[in-house]
Amino acid sequence: MKKLLVVVYLFCLIQFVAGQNAVDVKKQFTLAAQQYELLLKSHPDITKFPQSSNADGSTRDMASSWWCSGFFGGSLWYLYEYTKDPKWKDAAHKWSMAVEKEKNNTTTHDLGFMLYCPFGNGYRLTKNETYKDIMLTGAKSLATRFHPEYGVIKSWEKFANYDYPVIIDNMMNLEFLFWAAKESGNKEFYNICLSHADSTIKNHYRKDNSSYHVVCYDKGGKVLAKKTAQGYADESAWGRGQSWGLYGYVVMYRETKNPVYLKEAENIADFILNHPNLPKDKVPYWDYNAPNIPNEERDASAAAIASSALFELAEYSKKGDTYIKNAIEMLKSLSSPAYLAPIGKNNNFILMHSVGHKPQHSEVDVPLVYADYYFLEGLLRYNAWLQKKKGKKS
């Protein structure tokens, strides 16, 4: 009996260890580099930012003013961070500088995506003062979209008949303002983050810890309507929106150490991971309440964002083991042939099967540049976790 128990224990231990090392980071970065070498070759014009695929299968490119323009440069920085190959540093610099002019753009709430993803990573890895100056200017531009009488950063200029819409995605741009607060000493940036995050907890989140996509405000912080744009219905849980919120509140806790934000991040994570409609491979449907599940499109970008966020959340939470396990399972699924594109296919993007805006029949079951970005970020965070584990054992 004792021998049997020992055998069972050893088997379980082997399975556990195998599960913790389920993703070959080196292999994934090698494949990603091969794809992005082809993507660079196909994009000699730095005014055309790779975004996705069109309905006819051609590459969809966008201008620097598009909210996703910073993700390509950011991904190139991640390739440089892992490989240390200077060719990726050169490419990352080139594509980061291609979006520099957006530092003066006050018409968008997405400057965190557009500027912090490329320049933030570039500055972190090189300490190039040019990047810092660009970002500080951009942070001032982003801050103009915060109006104290509303208490939140305005997202779009208009939504339906509402003049002050705020989307859950906006939580992602607060990391940029936190960085600017530290680098500039301007406390206003920090206070904007707190005000926006607190209002979002109060008004965007339901009792089940799912999030609305769009909340429309009036002066005094009065809520006029709670809607969706990219989700299935106003009361549904749009897949990527839940991941945006999770990531955003992990950042809020990192930057403030306020336990309220940690609890919010845990609540959102638990909603995602315990949802009855989350598939076994942990890659969400484009909406958790889409009407034809299981015959609905998956959103690889939602999984990539959530996986990356869970790796960091695990560092802070008492439920860290659960979050690590799920983060790895998501990353493992994305690294499988079900989502990872063959070399030279998928218009040279890394991941397949994301959904941008299904209600408008836009970017449905296609690659998306930000899915690649958060996939690479997740791989780096997983690799850091593995190295930390090895360090503890040695």
Automatic annotation (TrEMBL):
A Pfam family annotated for this UniProt entry: Glyco_hydro_88
SUPFAM superfamilies xrefs: Six-hairpin glycosidases
Hydrolase as UniProt keyword: yes
Superkingdom field: Bacteria
Any one GO MF annotation of this record: hydrolase activity
InterPro entries: 6-hairpin_glycosidase_sf, 6hp_glycosidase-like_sf, Glyco_hydro_88, UG_Glycosaminoglycan_Hydrolase
Keywords: Hydrolase, Signal
Span of the signal peptide: 1-22
Family: Belongs to the glycosyl hydrolase 88 family.
Protein name: Glycoside hydrolase family 88 protein
Gene source species: Xanthocytophaga flava
